[in-house]
Design brief:
- The chain has 360 residues and is mostly helical.
- Helices cover 59% and strands 5% of the residues.
- It has 18 helices and six strands.
- The strands form three sheets. A two-stranded antiparallel ribbon has the order 1-6. It has a two-stranded antiparallel sheet with strand order 2-3.
- Strand 2 (74-76) and strand 3 (82-84) form a beta hairpin.
- The two termini are 36 Å apart.
Length: 360
């Protein structure tokens, strides 16, 4: 026999000191890892201005502006703007031109070819990115978007995986598993030797998004009364937005992609200190028949909130519920029934709502 936790909240306080401490000191700060890793690849995969590397001119002492003018054809973009090509160069003998020791200008009738010696990059905004280190431009420019697509697929998979984990071992332990995966593979991202390993690591980080945000949100919503649930949801969404602003600031200060990956992962190791303060979901404890643990939690909440309650409040609620059942076997069977994911598809309406929420 289980009870609705909302029936207990009026006795222990719907928005007391305990809920405020947990919400403001734990649930709000843990929104930041989700914000950071949700959009980190915008900076890791950034594509700076680039052009064909002309080794002969670089060795000859020419500056980048001169190299562009002398060796790169001008093309028209899809928006009608004229700019230096990022993927083509004039196909001429630059050593011969340099050996003439005369001032020369490019001839637009010269043949062009794809870059043969790699690319040069404008480092005024980014010192390095995944793109500049592995030359993911021109014929390889699909790779950056591919890694983000794989990351997003990880988001979808993570919703199912961590959804099951939460129901299996509880919200608290699921959160710390989620945090561990994000930190470990966030750090591993910085040491990825190539595109394949980088993509795998980003997929594994993607498993934690948005669950590392959702799990604390669920805990917060389950601890507070109905009148404060809209407020707590709004505050956590605002905290996520502030996390995005903070990410922009960190990326502005750290222009190397490997250092940025470390700076957006290592600091969150400090969140392991929350193990001693983050409560387990009382609703999960009741749903899994861990009444003693749930009783200990609400006694702590009542004490911190300055409320006086009965020593065995939950047990008394359960006994009252059992008396209301009046020995009806059908009612008893219904209240003790366990549910699985298959119940989400049991009726046409449930099937429709499940599909809408999952994929729309």
């Amino acid at each position: 026999m289980t009870i609705d936790f909302d029936e207990v909240l009026p006795y222990i306080g719907e928005w007391g000191k305990y809920q405020k401490l947990v919400f403001w000191c734990i649930c709000i700060p843990v929104c930041i890892p989700c914000a950071f890793h949700s959009f980190l690849q915008v900076f890791l995969n950034a594509i700076p201005p680039h052009w064909c590397q002309i080794s002969e001119l670089k060795v000859g002492g020419y500056e980048d502006a001169a190299i562009l003018n002398l060796s790169i054809p001008i093309v028209e973009t899809a928006f009608g703007e004229k700019t230096f090509s990022q993927c083509l160069m004039y196909d001429v003998d630059y050593e011969s031109l340099l050996s003439q020791n005369v001032t020369w200008t490019p001839n637009t009738s010269w043949p062009t070819t794809a870059c043969v010696n790699g690319w040069a990059y404008d480092h005024s905004t980014y010192e390095t990115t995944v793109v500049t280190d592995w030359d993911l431009v021109c014929g390889q420019d699909w790779a950056g978007m591919m890694t983000y697509t794989v990351f997003s697929f990880g988001n979808l998979c993570g919703n199912f995986i961590f959804g099951f984990i939460q129901d299996w071992i509880g919200r608290k332990r699921a959160f710390f598993i989620c945090l561990t995966v994000e930190i470990v593979f966030g750090i591993a991202t910085a040491f990825a030797p190539g595109l394949i390993s980088y993509t795998v690591f980003r997929f594994l980080v993607g498993l934690t998004i948005p669950q590392i945000f959702v799990i604390p949100l669920v805990i917060a919503l389950e601890l507070v009364g109905p009148s404060k649930r809209g407020f707590t949801t709004l505050m956590q969404c605002l905290a996520f937005s502030l996390g995005l602003l903070l990410l922009a600031g960190v990326a502005y200060l750290i222009r190397d992609w490997q250092h940025l990956a470390l700076a957006t992962s290592i600091p969150f190791i400090a969140f392991y200190a929350y193990w001693w303060f983050l409560p387990e979901s009382a609703r999960w404890l009741l749903a899994t028949n861990k009444v003693d643990a749930a009783e200990a939690l609400i006694q702590t909440m009542a004490r911190v909130n300055g409320k006086q309650i009965q020593p065995n409040l939950l047990q008394n609620f359960i006994k009252e519920k059992e008396l209301l059942v009046n020995g009806s076997s059908d009612a008893m069977e219904d209240t003790t029934r366990t549910y699985t994911v298959l119940d989400l598809f049991r009726t046409p309406r449930l099937r429709r709502n499940t599909l809408l929420v999952s994929f729309i």
